Amino acid sequence: MSELAQPLPLLYNFRRCPYAMRARLAIIASGIAVNVRDIVLKHKPEAMLAISPKGTVPVLLLPNGTVIDESADIALWALTQRDPHRLLALSDIEHQWMMAQLERNDSEFKHWLDRYKYFDRFPEQSQASYFAAAITSLQPLEQQLASHAGHFLFERLTLVDLLLLPFVRQFAWVDSAAFANAPLPRVQQWLAHGLAQPWFTYAMQKRPLWLATGTEYQLLLPMD
What we know:
It contains 11 helices and 5 strands; from the N terminus they run E-H-E-H-E-E-H-H-H-H-H-H-H-H-H-E. It is an alpha+beta fold.
């Protein structure tokens, strides 16, 4: 008699959220089978709130009952389980730089990004001031990209690209013309290259909402 199939991890996901994008990209890169439930934040499922009362996405429920509800932790979990593209194969210096930029992105840059995008909610400064502060926060990426040839933050694709790309994308889309004219030529090229990759376009495909249809799906696209 064959063994019963083990349940899969379950991911609650909102397609446009950059934190959820980060988790999806790492899961795609890992090739791990995970059931995904797409939601909208205006109608949060009770099943999700029961395991993660803070009500943000992404939320990953493991078969053993463990809940991971921080996007970077989900990304690290996925690639720790399986890393066929060696996205975690970093030197100590690279790892330290990645963690420093993750901290900068999720605190300083996200602070200015939110104020730039929703400037009418933050009248203390002008939208142009918030834009300038965000540009300054991106300078370490510009400098890193200038330090070597290639399309990625290190010599090849690594986890740091997946962690940061969704947030720079969100910033660029607030005003694409302003971003195109910003003094960030290498960041602009890095972003354009990342957004054109099959793994990113696959991650951004629109799928049926779970509450409306009961549809779950899996993110299984081999990355080159």
